[in-house]
Amino acid sequence: MFAFLVGTVYSAGAQNEALPIRGFCISAPKPDELNDFIKFVDEELAPRQVNTLILRIDYNYQFESHPELRDQITLSKADVKRLVEVCKKQNIRLIPQINMLGHQSWAGKIGKLLEVYPEFDETPNVKIPEKYVWPNADGLYCKSYCPLHPELHQILFDLIDEICDVFESDAFHAGMDEVFYIGHDSCPRCSGLDKADLFAGEVNRIRNHLAEKNRKLWIWGDRLIDGKTTGMGMWEASMNNTYRAIDMIAKDVMICDWHYDRPDQTAVYFAMKGFNVVTCPWNKAQVAAVQTEDMFRFRQSATPEMKDRFQGMLQTVWSGVGPFLKEFYNLKQSDDHSVSNCFRATFDTIHKKN
Ligand SMILES: [Zn+2]
């Protein structure tokens, strides 16, 4: 026992190494928010040594490969190049996100992909209600596309390639969180198939496409956690049997492990399965501080094999740029449930540890 203790690599009190990933994730700015957002990158992200910026772009871009999939208000190529430039200048890795599989509608609004290509809908019989309420009889949270539709992937891969090219990115975030409609009984292609197989198949298909151009796939981790056994439920974990996909997907997929209300230590689970993982807080400063402390502790106490899989922290912001910046610059310090206080707590804790 004594020899074991002497030999251990755990070194409490020593100077911590910097976290490899110190990230921030938000919707891509709208064109009229671009100047303020670039200022925020220069004045707030860079001094905090944020080194990874994920922008949820979805259809907020003037796609040339599929102009039919442009949102009404979109960033131009020149707009995106301004984001690329500021990130280059500040040594920030810029990663675009388009939601794959789930999140193809939001409340009472169908997303652009299924609006233009309704044939890709996994549940065409489920109509988007005029007044959306949750819960509802259809179990409609968000629409999904059917991952087995034969004409789907050519379009998705065109979009992914174009957005990665314009962002000059070596990684792509595919979302893939909160997929409730998968392997639906009413889908002629997916009905009766194993939901974990379907989920893993789609992850690997996108991963393999990206790998052809040396790009890495990032996804949210919730579908890979067993919601029933862990008690984590249907949102931040899976209650529809997709969780077994954790043993079926390529190990070089980056897992963004989000937990907002409790600092659940699921990063350890992903690291033990061989994945690189970042922990993602949202709007609770106290939870984020514990999660950040945990991330340093995991890196310090894990085996050499696992240590580097604990890649760091990723602050998530689920509003648009406008509302977030408003909150950030006018905040009352007493508000514990504010995203900007959570962001400050995450990065204050990171810098305290170094
Ligand atoms: Zn299907």
Could you describe the 3D structure shown?
The chain has 354 residues and is of the alpha/beta class. It has twelve helices and ten strands. It has helices at residues 2-7, 34-45, 77-89, 112-116, 152-167, 195-211, 227-230, 266-272, 285-301, 304-307, 321-330, 339-353, and strands at residues 21-27, 52-56, 93-100, 105-106, 109-110, 171-175, 216-220, 254-258, 277-280, 310-316. The chain is globular. It starts with a helix and ends with a helix. 44% of the residues are buried. Residues 4-13 have low confidence and may be disordered. The chain binds zinc ion. Zinc ion is lined by residues 122, 146, 148, 187, 189-190. Residues 122, 146, 148, 187, 189-190 line the site of zinc ion (ZN).
Topology:
Blueprint: H1 2-7, E1 21-27, H2 34-45, E2 52-56, H3 77-89, E3 93-100, E4 105-106, E5 109-110, H4 112-116, H5 152-167, E6 171-175, H6 195-211, E7 216-220, H7 227-230, E8 254-258, H8 266-272, E9 277-280, H9 285-301, H10 304-307, E10 310-316, H11 321-330, H12 339-353
Parallel strand pairs: 1-2, 1-10, 2-3, 3-6, 6-7, 7-8, 8-9, 9-10
Antiparallel strand pairs: 4-5
Helix pairs in contact: 2-3, 9-12
The structure holds zinc ion (ZN).
Mean pLDDT equals: 94
| Rg from alpha-carbon coordinates | 20 Å
Q: Biggest sheet: strands side by side, in what order?
A: 1-2-3-6-7-8-9-10
Estimated share of beta-strand residues = 5-15%
Distance between the termini: 31 Å
Helix run count = 12
What summary fits the major beta sheet?
8 strands, parallel, barrel
Ligands bound, unique: zinc ion
Shape: globular
Assembly context of the chains: single chain
